[in-house]
Design a protein that fits this description.
- By secondary structure, this protein is an alpha+beta fold.
- It is built from three helices and eight strands.
- The relative contact order is 0.13.
- A four-stranded mixed sheet has the order 4-1-7-8, covered by helices on one side.
């Protein structure tokens, strides 16, 4: 084998993760809007990057450049980046750019509860956490409401108090 070709093949193999962009495929069923705004998230700061037109039926397909460290040899030190795809009426989907392709399907009427992450383990874990957090907040708020309004002498009050403390 020609040494130059072999060398180019090795360089290409080592650097291929830096050469290909991340494919993002987000489908929002029942979405009336044909346009969305792509933004990056950094703490509380939201920076608009681009607008994206739907391919139809609420499907948005686009690519992002790979996440890279300033030092290309230190790939382990690069950090995932959060993005937001915003639709009409203050509805959006946040997702992680970590050099994995992302495929998400959801319904515009209930984005979080109907969310299905078909590819990207980071996004699957992120939305699993988001759903658990929502369940925790709902249970906590309901138990606090019962404790605030129920007679303290009643046995149900004590049962609710124990349940609330276990939830903490």
């Amino acid at each position: 084998m020609n040494p130059k070709i072999f060398f180019l093949f090795i360089v290409y193999s080592c650097c291929s993760s830096f050469l290909f962009s991340q494919q993002i495929d987000i489908t929002v069923v029942n979405l009336k809007s044909e346009r969305a705004v792509l933004s990056s998230l950094s703490g509380e700061t939201i920076t608009q990057i681009d607008s994206i037109t739907s391919l139809g039926n609420g499907r948005f397909l686009f690519s992002l450049k790979p996440v890279r460290s300033k030092d290309l040899t230190a790939h382990a030190n690069s950090h995932p980046v959060f993005y937001r795809l915003s639709f009409d009426n203050n509805r959006w989907i946040d997702f992680i750019n970590d050099n994995e392709d992302v495929t998400i399907i959801t319904d515009a009427e209930n984005i979080l509860d109907s969310m299905k992450v078909l590819s990207s383990e980071s996004n699957r874990l992120y939305y699993s956490f988001q759903k658990l957090n929502k369940q925790y907040k709902t249970k906590s708020e309901l138990l606090q409401l019962v404790l605030a309004r129920y007679p303290k002498e009643d046995s149900y009050y004590k049962t609710t108090q124990v349940t609330f403390l276990k939830l903490q």
